[in-house]
Amino acid sequence: MAKTPSQSAPVPRLYIVTPLVADTAGIATPLQDALAAADVAAVLLRLAPADERTLINRVKALAPAVQEQGTALILEEHLEIAARAGADGCHINDVATLRSAAAALKPARILGAGRLPSRHDAMLAGEAGVDYVMFGEPDAKGARPSLSAVVERVSWWAALFEIPCVAFAASLEEIEPLCEAGADFIALGDAVFSDPRGLAAAAADAGRHIGARVTA
Predict the structure, then answer these.
(1) Which domain holds residue 172?
(2) pLDDT digit string (tens) for 1-14?
(3) Does the residue 4 lie in any domain?
(4) How far is CA 94 from CA 130, 157, 185, 192, in A?
(5) Helix/strand/coil percent split, the chain, to 5
(6) pTM for the complete prediction?
(7) Apex 84 CA angle, 82 and 89, nearest 5
(8) 179 lies in a domain?
(9) Residues 106-150: pLDDT tens digits?
(10) Could you tell me the CA-to-CA distances from 117 to 69, 93, 133, 150, 190 in Å, in that order?
(11) Tell me, what CATH number does 69's domain have?
(12) 22 domain-assigned
């Protein structure tokens, strides 16, 4: 659905993307501290490979730390265990499976779509009934579009579609241009997890970058 010119730009919220998680004990407290320090709408949980029972146990171990803060826990892939493990939704990186994922998850849970390299793929995701699309995240090899390419894609989507858009920022400095482009959410991964100040301080700083844009 197209947006009308009278609609104001959204006030973006943060969306934290974890590294591949195997040690839930090591990430639970820093994640809780980060959620207390900033307005985080969702956490995308990426799991290191393991057997199904181990994967479910990892989600169950982290879910309370996230959900008790009023933040949604979204599981990357692993559609088959998302509901059983207590996740709030699932993030799918294959546009061809989005319709079946929507049938399995909705309306009770959130469905997000990523790895959408073309405008056509993004529109297919929208037609499949996703709750958000993500642009700019690294691919399986760690490669990522340029900031200008991500800004262009976000601007295009925000101008035409009602479905929320998550823009992946590779650094805190990218937050403001992505906000200006019209992103509804700003995703951050290594930019906050690798920050020497710690996850909570980095998340709080990211929130200030959004605040600087909103109040400018």
Answers:
(1) 14-215
(2) 234 333 455 689 99
(3) no
(4) 12, 19, 21, 26
(5) 45, 20, 35
(6) 0.93
(7) 30
(8) yes
(9) 999 999 999 999 999 999 999 999 999 999 999 888 899 999 999
(10) 33, 11, 11, 10, 21
(11) 3.20.20.70
(12) yes
